[in-house]
């Protein structure tokens, strides 16, 4: 698995950096990032009493109403999963042990939460006020209100307690606080007594004897230092004890000009990793002591309450404070702010200048403030400031401070201001920008009426340059080669030296704002801050660095270059640091995408535009200072503490179709689960809002999904199977926990999704496929058979046609020829015989053509069957037989063409047979249109041999063909014969087989008849 390395770590080329470990003690508490969660917001049901962080990264908060787990974003009330309960819902103390377990001290007993199991200690009685793990890993508890009278100090031995009391050298009736030192001693405090104890050795101290006149409530807090000093916090009704040190058995109060510790009611003490002592009080908030320097933070500054219960420092160095009304968190801001809370006279900082002696000069409202070694001083009109509004600042090479105030320019030296005037004694105007060139000249840009550029040397104005000579400028900077650079209000750069002005324009269309600041580098290149990006000039070439190069925004309020030549841009998006190497790439390729590091609002940056100059400055120690019109902001590039702690990642629960499941491997989700939600978290408390996630569902996702800061993954309609959900996360500085965590779960199949169902379905499918195959094979065989039958039927029909036409004619021709060859006919003339033969052959040709046409078209054209049959009678007449009677009953109706042709063929054959073979003198042909169609031919001849009538004559196919045609048409053919009454042939075809009652549906019938080669029931589908 390859995860790209985080960009911030790759780009941290700014300088040597530290590792995030604790709060920077050089900052005021008010400069830390502070977050408060209050009971009134509904976060807690009871007052928080204790805080601890287990090895899995979770933060635990013990309250008066139960135990709460916190991941930096969500507070989750905790209940054990095995159905057990804590001895009491009032949690008094917590300890996160080194073995990963959580020890929970309640109002009436002790419990341990380890590996998902809750262990309670039934022998425990009383309130567990404090829990401590010594250097050897032994768990000790301090308890009060114990009913067993075994002593206030207990040691955990497997699943029971071993308690110590007066018989063991502990003259305390109860204990509320514990501490240990590097000598193996335990310090136990309770009531008016403090004891140093270890098995076989005990010393008792009575702090109340320090001031017997005071009403003493007791020792509430202990904190030991590595060198052996013990800090003791006490609560008293009067004054005189409060905060004390116990050094080599002697009591020592803490008193400085800022704080008299003996006046405090101390409820909590803690040393952080920077060896700062944090003091919680009963009603005054918190104090911090570092190298005897005292800082204070209370509810007026945003603390959730002035009554403090306990402190806790997590593994990332965040400080947690439990108060009577909530929880507070403090962590370092990379960008520190200075305001009235840190001593400034007003929150209207418009300019800043870092002098060479380390003093930070601040142009404020009605004041010139200075910051030096955390001490803020102020110069106002009442103590010498020659005006109200500071408009610009400059320190010259001699260390003198030039100050633009209102419409005057003054020089500040040794506590006095000296004004700079025009030769006529008038003020020069509102100075908005100043610089000192390489020759020691002071250049000042003033807005007056009109505005002008002044060159000052030795407190005297030597040159005045009007707007007609030099356009108005917002900022000035000295050129190392002589003269000055100007950032023009038009948005261009200009250089003025030796009374000559050069203007450098950037070909980028209309200007967007003016040049706010100029920076001239040692290599002669120039940068300018504008509202449309950072403009750069080098060797006559102009280019712009904008969002097209990857910046998060274009507007630049101010910028500075640090000691490593990295460029820091003060923008609306935050403070952007671009390493020197990236700037080099940009100079070579103006369209290059630059890499940078962004410090945003979560890092303390609050950029805004300032109307005066300078609004950015670098102090001798390398710190960068920015004025934002309201606050003074500072960042130290050489001491940027990085959070290198990989955040532990946890999957908290699975929600499938609104049903919740514990996040444990091999979770079985029901079949047909549609909506799946997986909740996960990463435990980094510095800036939880910047923790980012990636996840992947193995078995479903092909690549990692970028979740951003979202802490839920959603899936829908997962197929049955086994899945593994893998999630990783990074902290606020982009340090990734690439291992992350995984969760295996299974989506169960429905009945039709099971393996056996698939096997059964497969077998069924194979069986059906085989059956279909066999059916198809049978149909193919039937189709082949049908085609053979069709061919046979066609051959049979062709034989009938040939028999009924050509063969009969040929036989007649043969009889003519035989007659000619008969000796008895020698008297006949050959010409007459040959004429008859010619007529016979012509008739044969006609009949053959008619037969061929019948193979392609209907013989009876149109719908007139009667006319077609009459033509068959006309053929008889041509042979000399003329007594044929035609009778038509009913009205002619539309008939299916194929059936009509079959009727015609049968009728034609019957009429011709009667004419040629019956020897009759009269033939009656009757065609009857009724519900059915009836056709009959009745002659008065000699009849037919019954055997021939029933089966036909050998080698003759006339009667057989008629019967086949009748059967093919769905009708019946009957022949009755007698030597006395002649022969009667009757063809009856049902109406639904012969008559057509619709329009073009006959084509459909035709297709059906063609697909029904057997010829039975051709009109069966016609209604």
Radius of gyration: 57 Å
CATH homologous superfamily title of the largest domain: YVTN repeat-like/Quinoprotein amine dehydrogenase
Query: What is the average per-residue confidence, as pLDDT, rounded to a whole number?
Result: 85
> Outline, from the CA principal axes?
elongated
Largest sheet: 5 strands, mixed
Helical fraction equals 10-25%
- Helix/sheet category: alpha+beta
What strand order characterises the main sheet? 59-65-64-61-62
Total E-strand runs:
70
> Roughly how many Å apart are the termini?
74 Å
CATH topology descriptor of the largest domain: Methylamine Dehydrogenase, Chain H
Strand-residue fraction?
35-45%
How would you explain this protein's 3D organization?
By secondary structure, this protein is of the alpha+beta class. It is built from ten helices and 70 strands. A hairpin with a 2-residue loop joins β48 and β49. The longest helix has 67 residues, at 755-821. It starts with 6 loop residues before the first helix and ends in a 12-residue tail after the last helix.
Could you give the topology of this structure?
Elements: H1 7-10, E1 33-38, E2 48-53, E3 59-63, E4 66-70, E5 75-77, E6 91-96, E7 102-106, E8 110-114, E9 117-120, E10 127-133, E11 139-144, E12 153-157, E13 160-164, E14 177-180, E15 186-190, E16 193-198, E17 201-205, E18 216-224, E19 230-236, E20 243-247, E21 250-253, E22 266-271, E23 277-281, E24 286-290, E25 293-297, E26 308-313, E27 319-323, E28 326-331, E29 336-338, E30 351-354, E31 360-364, E32 367-372, E33 375-379, E34 390-395, E35 401-405, E36 408-413, E37 416-420, E38 430-436, E39 442-447, E40 452-457, E41 460-466, E42 473-478, E43 484-488, E44 493-497, E45 500-504, E46 517-520, E47 526-530, E48 533-538, E49 541-545, E50 558-561, E51 567-571, E52 574-578, H2 580-588, E53 597-599, E54 616-618, E55 624-627, E56 632-635, E57 649-656, E58 659-662, E59 667-669, E60 675-682, E61 692-698, E62 705-708, E63 712-716, E64 721-730, E65 736-747, H3 755-821, H4 830-856, H5 865-878, E66 884-889, H6 897-917, E67 923-929, E68 933-939, H7 946-951, H8 958-968, E69 972-978, E70 982-989, H9 991-994, H10 1002-1011
Helix pairs in contact: 3-4, 5-6, 6-8
């Amino acid at each position: 698995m390859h995860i790209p390395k985080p960009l911030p770590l790759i780009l941290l080329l700014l300088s040597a950096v530290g590792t995030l470990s604790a709060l920077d003690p050089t900052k005021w508490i008010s400069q830390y990032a502070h977050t408060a969660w209050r009971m009134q917001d509904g976060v807690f049901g009871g007052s928080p009493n204790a805080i601890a962080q287990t090895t899995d990264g979770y933060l635990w908060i013990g309250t008066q109403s139960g135990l709460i787990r916190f991941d930096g974003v969500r507070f989750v009330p905790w209940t054990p999963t095995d159905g057990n309960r804590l001895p009491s819902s009032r949690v008094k103390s917590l300890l996160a042990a080194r073995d990963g377990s959580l020890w929970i001290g309640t109002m009436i007993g002790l419990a341990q939460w380890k590996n998902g199991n809750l262990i309670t200690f039934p022998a425990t009685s009383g309130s567990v006020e404090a829990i401590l793990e010594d250097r050897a890993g032994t768990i000790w508890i301090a308890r009060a209100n114990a009913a067993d009278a075994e002593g206030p100090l207990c040691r955990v031995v497997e699943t029971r307690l071993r308690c110590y009391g007066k018989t063991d050298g502990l003259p305390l009736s109860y204990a509320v606080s514990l501490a240990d030192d590097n000598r193996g001693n335990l310090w136990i405090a309770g009531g008016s007594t403090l004891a140093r104890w270890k098995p076989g050795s005990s010393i008792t101290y009575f702090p109340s004897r320090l001031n017997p006149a005071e009403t003493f409530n007791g020792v509430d807090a202990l904190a030991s230092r590595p060198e052996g000093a013990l800090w003791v916090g006490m609560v008293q009704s009067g004054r005189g004890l409060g905060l004390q040190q116990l050094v080599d058995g002697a009591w020592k109060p803490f008193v400085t000009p800022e704080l008299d510790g003996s006046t405090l009611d101390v409820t909590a003490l803690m040393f952080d990793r920077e060896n700062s002592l944090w003091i919680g009080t009963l009603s005054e908030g918190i104090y911090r002591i570092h190298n005897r320097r005292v800082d204070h933070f209370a509810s007026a500054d945003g603390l959730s309450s002035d009554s403090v219960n306990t402190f806790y420092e997590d593994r990332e160095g965040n400080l947690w404070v439990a108060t009577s009304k909530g929880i507070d968190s403090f962590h370092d801001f990379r960008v520190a702010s200075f305001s009235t809370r840190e001593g400034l006279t007003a929150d209207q900082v418009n300019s800043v200048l870092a002098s060479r002696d380390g003093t930070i000069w601040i142009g404020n409202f009605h004041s010139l403030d200075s910051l030096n070694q955390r001490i803020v001083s102020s110069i106002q009109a009442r103590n010498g400031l020659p005006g109200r509004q500071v408009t610009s600042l400059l320190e010259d090479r001699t260390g003198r401070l030039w100050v633009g105030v209102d419409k005057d320019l003054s020089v500040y030296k040794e506590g006095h201001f000296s004004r700079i005037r025009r030769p006529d004694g008038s003020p020069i105007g509102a100075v908005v920008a100043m610089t000192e060139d390489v020759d020691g000249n002071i250049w000042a840009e003033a807005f007056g009426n009109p505005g002008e550029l002044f060159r000052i040397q030795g407190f005297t104005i030597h040159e005045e340059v009007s707007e007609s000579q030099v356009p108005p400028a917002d900022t000035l900077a000295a050129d190392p080669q002589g003269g000055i650079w100007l950032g023009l209000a038009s948005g261009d750069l200009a250089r003025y030296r030796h009374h000559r002005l050069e203007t450098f324009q950037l070909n980028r269309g209309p200007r967007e704002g003016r040049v706010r600041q100029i920076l001239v580098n040692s290599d002669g290149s120039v940068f300018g801050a504008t509202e449309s990006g950072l403009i750069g000039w080098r060797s006559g070439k102009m280019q712009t660095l904008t969002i097209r190069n990857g910046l998060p925004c274009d507007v630049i309020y101010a910028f500075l270059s640090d000691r490593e030549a990295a460029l820091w841009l003060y923008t609306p998006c935050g403070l952007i640091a671009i390493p020197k190497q990236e700037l080099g790439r940009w100079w070579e390729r103006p369209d290059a995408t630059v890499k940078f590091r962004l410090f945003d609002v979560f890092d303390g940056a609050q950029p805004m535009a300032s109307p005066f100059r300078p609004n950015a400055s670098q102090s001798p120690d390398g710190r960068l200072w920015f004025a934002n019109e309201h606050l003074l902001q500072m960042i130290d590039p050489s001491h940027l503490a990085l959070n290198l702690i990989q955040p532990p990642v946890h999957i908290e629960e699975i929600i499938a179709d609104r049903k919740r499941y514990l996040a444990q491997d091999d979770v079985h989700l029901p079949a047909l689960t549609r909506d799946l939600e997986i909740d996960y978290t990463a435990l980094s408390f510095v800036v939880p809002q910047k923790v980012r996630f990636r996840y992947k569902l193995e078995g479903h996702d092909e690549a990692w999904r970028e979740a951003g800061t979202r802490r839920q993954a959603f899936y829908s309609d997962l197929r049955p199977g086994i899945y593994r959900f893998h999630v990783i996360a990074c902290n606020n500085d982009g340090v990734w926990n690439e291992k992350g965590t995984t969760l295996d779960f299974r989506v169960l199949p429905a009945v039709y999704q099971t393996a056996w169902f698939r096997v059964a379905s497969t077998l069924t499918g194979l069986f059906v496929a085989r059956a279909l195959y066999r059916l198809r094979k049978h149909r193919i065989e039937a189709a082949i058979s049908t085609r053979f039958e069709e061919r046979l039927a066609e051959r049979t029909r062709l034989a009938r046609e040939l028999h009924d036409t050509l063969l009969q004619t040929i036989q007649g021709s043969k009889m003519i020829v035989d007659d000619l060859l008969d000796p008895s006919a020698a008297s006949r003339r050959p010409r007459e015989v040959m004429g008859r033969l010619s007529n016979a052959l012509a008739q044969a040709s006609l009949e053959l053509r008619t037969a061929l046409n019948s193979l392609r078209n209907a013989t009876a054209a149109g719908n007139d069957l009667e006319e077609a049959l009459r033509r068959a009678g006309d053929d008889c007449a041509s042979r000399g037989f003329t007594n044929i009677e035609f009778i038509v009953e009913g009205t002619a109706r539309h008939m299916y063409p194929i059936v009509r042709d079959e009727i015609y063929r049968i009728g034609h054959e019957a009429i011709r047979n009667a004419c040629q073979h019956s020897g009759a003198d009269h033939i009656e042909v009757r065609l009857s249109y009724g519900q059915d169609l009836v056709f009959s031919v009745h002659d008065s001849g000699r009849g037919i041999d019954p055997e021939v009538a029933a089966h036909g004559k050998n080698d003759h196919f006339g009667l057989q063909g008629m019967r086949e045609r009748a059967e093919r048409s769905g009708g019946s053919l009957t022949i009755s014969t007698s030597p006395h009454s002649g022969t009667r042939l009757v063809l009856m075809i049902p109406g639904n087989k012969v008559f057509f009652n619709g329009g073009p549906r006959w084509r459909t019938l035709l297709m059906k008849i063609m697909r029904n080669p057997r010829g039975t029931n051709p009109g069966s589908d016609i209604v």
